[in-house]
Amino acid sequence: MAKPSWTAIRGALPALGLILLAACAAQGKLEARHARSGFVTPAPAADFAGYIAQAKAQIAAANAAIGTPLEPKVIEARAPFELRPEGARCRRAADGRYRRAALLIHGLGDTPYQMRDLGERFAAACYLVRAILLPGHGTVPGDLLGIGDSAWIEATRQGAASFAGEAERLYLVGFGAGAALALDYAEGEAAANAPPLGGLVLLAPALARPGGPGLFANGFLGFGPPGAADGFVQLLPEDDPVRYLSIARDARTQLGALIDELDARRHLLALPVFLALSADDATIDAPAARRWFCGQLLGPRALVWYASGPGPADDCRFVLPRASDRWPGVLDLAHRALPIAPDDPHYGLAGDYVDCAHYYWQTDTPDWLICQDPVKTPANSTVRYGEITRQNLAAHVMRRLTFNPDFDALATAILEFLAAQRRSSPPVPSLKPAA
Fold first, then answer.
1. Residue of 247, 275, 24, 281 whose CA lies nearest to 145
2. CB–CB of 216/234 below 8 Å?
3. Which residues of 333-365 are buried (b: 16+ CB within 10 A; e: fewer)?
4. Are 431 and 270 spatial neighbours (Cβ–Cβ below 8 Å)?
5. Mean pLDDT taken over the chain
6. Looking at the DSSP assignment, which residues form a beta bridge with residue 173?
7. For a FRET experiment, which of 73, 143, 331, 361 has its CA 20 to 30 Å from that of 43?
8. Phi, psi values for residue 61, rounded to 5°
9. Which is it for the CA torsion 273, 156, 251, 50, positive or negative?
10. Torsion angle in degrees (nearest 10) through CA of 390, 394, 396, 400
């Protein structure tokens, strides 16, 4: 399925409109989209095509109900998706099952679009790919009010169960909160009839509790006015068609509860695990995720550690350091950049979306204007891509990096790692008790 083109959609939001929207958000103004829509995200099902259709209907209805109908391409981009491997080399088993499958789980506030670039690489490697839409997501930001982590956990289980009878082996691929959900599934009881787990791919996993040194600690909430009101820890203009920029406090709290549960178990995981992290991530606690990788894994593992400087002085094997500042204009890798290809039509280098939300409270300043469109000022050479750390913002006009210049190498490393585990051994048990 072709990726949607966003030019016409975002062309309806001129720069002046964005500035006015940002001003409203900075004042903490709530709108219809900040209330619950009443439209419930369906649970994944064995009839995955039916699940996709139901999710699209709910996304469309929730936005039409508040007078902001969505273009079909936006609905398509927000919805769950399935990619089936094609070609003679992607042979099935004698019983008709695919040899391997991948369940993709997006992060907090995001939609399956975030995982599409990686999903296409998995499908090209002969995986049956399915990406789920977590409850409360994809409709309106208010649908994250009152959400419970149990709904996300159940959606993950149902997503795994949807592969029953269709694949010999299942891999979970999660980003941020989705990575925490993948880990929770791996440490718990497998869904009925789901294929055995072959491994985990965790990208920028949220493994430190929100409000502490991890999630949201160094991101938007660290700069300018709080921009939050009446149940929202983050209230920003919704100028990105495929994710929420306003985040409900309930959702952050529930993610924290999930992380607390994972931390309390302290299981030693024996599954193959591939981890990718940016040391400069301003949304999750990257050092905490690295410590978990180094201390609580027993099986085959690999960690790609993107950093713009020297790494931690530890004696942790299986860490693959990789410089994150090797590309022109890029200082380091931002949180959301990891799973996005440079040629992505929305978030890529030539994509139509630029992330300047960190300047949302100063829309009449040169920094905002330069970030939005560097040709508006002769100082465009000051624009840099990277994470919105205090150090970066103090030295440069920053566009938060929305794509990974190293995406091809990362995707190749992930697939080669998983292939190596398949060649060496059958699926291993997922748990061993902690000492």
1. 247
2. yes
3. bbbbbbbbbbebbbbbeebbbbbbbbbbbebee
4. yes
5. 85
6. 104, 201
7. 73
8. -65, -40
9. positive
10. 20
Tokens of 182: 């993948």
Count of Cβ atoms closer than 10 Å to residue 60 Cβ = 19
Cβ(424)–Cβ(340) below 8 Å:
no
- For 338, residues 6+ apart whose C-beta sits below 8 A from its C-beta are 175, 203, 204, 276, 278, 404, 410
The helix (H) or strand (E) run that includes residue 390 is: helix 390-395
Any idea of the CA torsion for 419, 421, 426, 429, to the nearest 10 degrees?
-130
The amino acid occupying position 203 is L
pLDDT digits (tens, 9 = 90+) for 215-230: 333 333 333 334 445 7
Residues 197 and 273: their CA atoms lie apart, in Å, by 11
Q: What is the pTM of this model?
A: 0.89
- CA distances in angstroms from 70 to 39, 76, 81, 276, listed in the order given: 15, 10, 18, 34
Instruction: Say if residues 101 and 166 touch (Cβ distance below 8 Å).
Output: yes
- CA-to-CA distance for 156 and 258, rounded, in angstroms? 13
Quick check: 299 and 430 in contact, CB under 8 A?
A: no
71 touches 12 (CB < 8 A): no
Q: What is the rounded CA–CA span in Å between residue 312 and residue 34? A: 41
Distance CA 337, CA 367 (A): 21
Residue with tokens 């709904």, as numbered in its chain: 151
In whole angstroms, how far apart are CA 418 and each of 24, 47, 65, 119, 168? 47, 27, 44, 15, 14
Strands 128-132 and 81-83: antiparallel
Other beta carbons less than 10 A from residue 321's beta carbon: 13
Q: Do residues 83 and 123 touch, judged by C-beta distance below 8 A?
A: yes
* Residue 101 three-state SS: strand
Q: What is the pLDDT of residues 357-391, one digit of tens each?
A: 988 877 677 888 888 887 766 656 678 999 999 89
Q: Cα dist. 363→233, 366, 376, 382, 390 in Å? A: 21, 8, 14, 18, 19
